[in-house]
Amino acid sequence: MGITVKDNLFYISSKDSSLILENRQGDLLLKHLGKRITSYHFSNTVFEKDHAFSGNPSPEIRTYSYDTQRQVVGSYGFGDFRHPSIRVQHQTNELTQFKLVDFDIIDGIVEAQGLPSPHSGEKAETLVLVLEDSVAKLTLRLYYTAFEDTSTITTFATLKNWSDEEVVIHRLLSTMLDLPAKKYDVLTLQGAYAREKTVRRQALQQGTFSISSNRGASGHGQTPALILTDNHATEDSGESIALQLLYSGNFQAFAQENQLKEVRLGIGINDDNFAWELKAEEIFVTPVAMMTYSDQGLTGLTEESQKFVQNHIIPQKYSQKERPVLINNWEATYFDFNQKKLVELADEASQLGLELFVLDDGWFGNRFDDNRALGDWTVNEEKLGGSLSALISEVHDRGMQFGLWVEPEMISEDSELYQAHPDWAIQTPERSHTYSRNQLMLNLANPKVVAYLKETFHDLLTKNPIDYIKWDYNRNMTNVGNGDTYLETQMQSHAYMLGFYELVDYLTRQHPNVLFESCSGGGGRNDLGAMRYFPQVWASDNTDAIARLPIQYGSSYLYPTISMGAHVSASPNHQMCRVTPFQTRGHVAMMGNLGYELDLTKLTEEEKTLVSEQVALYKKIRPLVQFGKQYRLINPEQGSNEAAVQFVYDNQTVVTYVRIQSTIETIETTLKLKGLETETLYRLEGTELVYSGAELMYAGLTLDMPSGDYLSRQFYFVKQS
């Protein structure tokens, strides 16, 4: 299996990768992270020298310094001048010196209590390393889980206080890794609202590169992930390591190159405005981090990460379950709808082959705009023309599933809930509220609030046959200050996340047949912590097909396509005001989980025919897109005027190409496909054309495009027997 102990070495080995640690008199030293090694004999050892200004734990050995050793625990105050992995205030200082005292090997996975954890699947093994600081009276446990079917290792830490007095945690990373000197690039997924997950790649140099969020959520601008790659790595070659965090709150990730050009990676909870009081005998648990390795370029890293997320993060019931083609009424009606309008939309959707009808914001309480009624989750039967169950029956009678929008974590001042419980909103005493979308946040660090939300939404889902929930989160956390003491206030943002995970864990367990989608104004909480409970994510509120190209491209680096919702919207687009052909809008959305977000009743007959054809084709290629291996053929983020993506699954492949601006007097683009069988023939569906796999991969497929902006082509090949 994945864990082996030989002499003073710990081998943590997944499918194709290994993490090897040495126990040197209680210090844990990192000897290797990369391609799998089953027999290690210190070929890459650090030559220990008396480096200037590097402190030594022993006066007799001036060549051994924490400042120059590669470690997995970065202690504070004992001569390691890089960023530490742990800072704990105890007695009169923050010095800690943890020594290994024991270890254990456990069959399967150990869950991080109260936090999202992977499900192990069939074969996994966990190494538990027990370290103690006898002066501070603290026990640090490091958990490493190896999975047989993937080149990913997951890890988290716990800290127990066995002193008689409380201590204060100021930093405790989920993982830290020290790597050898080398020319690296660092790659992250950044952006902003409506342009999430854009790829940023830059050379790592001396100093610290870091990303973080202090918004109370992972945020639109940053993704809790960092990729360290060879500076020459391409899609098809080179080594890469991805660190990701299963956490939806404030996070930090960094890559630090020191004066010796060695590199330290770290990821965990953001320690800005964070402190955690740990009383005697209490235990603090960090979020789970995952480290994924590939020596097959960025495509190989993508395949490993996507496979792990699909098999071990996304709830098992939905990891291999095709997603329905949906219609969402939001951009069709916004708040202005009634029963007649909704039923008309459902009629059109059913006739065009759509499978899921989603009723968005505005169905509850006095909710006629976004200034009121959040928290009052009672059905507005006057607006719906009857009960919610009656509307659901109308949809079900048309052969479609029914979905509903909710925003459980928010509250409006103009609501009955706020009038009854104004203290339930996150707020600072004697300070005025800070508003965003004219709404406030409920304090999920308060157990009473969590209990109320459990009861409210369990009741909603029990009384109504709802098939799908779109769970929105439309603002970030401000005015943190509900605690009675300073430390309670510093603990509030993480305590909120513990309350959030308790809530969604309860509701998804109680209602396993409901497909939950995470939304936060689009991609503001598109992270693995949310994905552990919500099998689908609304990647961006920006539904413009051209703007979606880099968003979907960036999402593909680490997340499987089956997790990504993508919709066809109206033209001109409501966000960008861009006019884009219906075919292109469909082709771009078909690179994700296809949906429609427009008024179907206002389409021309020609457009309705296009929708019907798109839906029928997507149902054929849906297994390729949602379960297939993905190849990024042309990157839309590198100043390109084009984008191209390919999916391969079983005996089929589909290629989608988009040209953004029209060109003149240029030679046509030739796409070289990937992942095909060289001697096998592939027929282009809808034609009699047949090509060999070798021809499509090595000679390529030349695209004959007409003049015009924002045009696309889609090619669907089936392997011939």
Concise overview:
This protein is α+β, with helices and mostly antiparallel strands and 721 residues long. It has 14 helices and 38 strands.
User: What's the main sheet like?
Assistant: 10 strands, antiparallel
The total of helices stands at 14
Number of strands: 38
Q: Tell me what the CATH architecture of the largest domain is.
A: Distorted Sandwich
Count of structural domains: 3
Give Rg in angstroms: 27 Å
Corresponding CATH superfamily of the largest domain: alpha-galactosidase from lactobacil brevis
Strand content range:
25-35%
Distance between the termini: 38 Å
Average pLDDT over all residues: 96
Unreliable parts: none
Q: What is the general shape?
A: globular
CATH class type of the largest domain = Mainly Beta
Structural class: alpha+beta
In which range does the helix fraction lie? 10-25%
Looking at the structure, the CATH topology of the largest domain is Beta-galactosidase, Chain A, domain 5
Descriptive notes:
The protein is built from 14 helices and 38 strands. It has three domains: 3-313, alpha-galactosidase from lactobacil brevis (Beta-galactosidase, Chain A, domain 5); 324-602, Aldolase class I (TIM Barrel), CATH 3.20.20; 634-719, Immunoglobulin-like (Sandwich), CATH 2.60.40. It has 721 residues and is an alpha+beta fold. Strand 28 (536-538), helix 11 (545-555) and strand 29 (564-569) form a beta-alpha-beta unit. Helix content is 21%, strand content 31%. The strands form seven sheets. Strands 6, 7, 8, 9, 11, 12, 14, 15, 19 and 20 form a ten-stranded antiparallel sheet that branches. It has an eight-stranded parallel barrel with strand order 21-22-23-26-27-28-29-30, surrounded by five helices. Helix 11 packs parallel to helix 12 (582-589). It is globular, with a radius of gyration of 27 Å.
